[in-house]
Amino acid sequence: VERQALERKYGALYAPILTRRRQRLAAVDVPGFAPEPSQGQSSSSASTAAPVATPAVPGFWRTVLQNSGEFQEDIEEHDEPVLDYLLDITSEPLDESGLSGFRVIFHFQPNPFFTNTELVKVYHTSRPNLFVDRLDCDHIEASPITWQGGKNVTVEVVTRKKSWRKKQKPKREEVSRPSLFRTFFRNLGPDEEIPEEELADEDDSEDPMDIMECLISDDFEQGKALRDYIVPHAVRWFTGDACDDFDDDETDDEEEEEEQKLDGDDEEEEEEKEGKMEEDATSTALSSSKEGAAGDGGRGASEGSQASSQLPQESCSGQ
Length: 319
Fold this sequence. Notes:
The chain is α+β, with helices and mostly antiparallel strands. The protein has helices at 2-26, 43-46, 60-67, 80-83, 180-183, 196-199, 208-230, 234-239, 244-310, and strands spanning 86-93, 101-108, 118-126, 136-142, 155-160, 171-176. The chain has a single domain, classed as 2-Layer Sandwich (Arylsulfatase, C-terminal domain), CATH 3.30.1120. A hairpin with a 7-residue loop joins strand 1 and strand 2.
């Protein structure tokens, strides 16, 4: 409860900053701030240029999402023109306590792709029990997208060739293709069907409920990332500063691997040296042993000769 109270308190304090950011990006109602014309574009022609959602920084939100690890793999090239009409992304709790979930709202400028000015994702959450301080996502709702004719970026038109014997004209039909607007703006829950594109990558023996739970969990992580990190610090994601920790981790991992490799090489060299020293010591010991044995053998033969000369001589003459 205290945590939710603090989040509401500082959320209210942070709201004016986010409002000012939106105004700056739109270049409206901010004294002393105006967008600079693009390279090769005069200030007179800037007013007649094609409209963009964030004229101060064209493609701001598209770049923010592309720089975030949670969304960069979901954004396709054909999604980019649509995202250039994205004005802002906001979030709000479903109730005062914040325990029931939250919604994320994508605000769009009027555009030629769809009629929606807002696309909303609603995450419904609950606590597993009173003894666990954790919220689980039960199901996710997304507002349907009303696409303009021929502008649906989640499908592509392909031509199916017919048999030449029947003399039929090639048939054109729409087939699904990967898109952020297909994978992110969809309903997920126990009562929903597994999306067709997800079934193609799964094993037939896997439980559909397990697949759905994984999809809900991954989507929930994306929603929380938007609410807690990406939207509040969007400028840092745009500049790439927010990605530095990820890059540093990669660099640290590479340096650690290199150090381990060098340590391994040093250990191998040390083992080779120790092995060589052991071989040299063994050779020396063997050599000394042979020399000692040879010396002892010589002395033994000499002493034996002397002893035999002193013994009484036996004769075989029969005397």
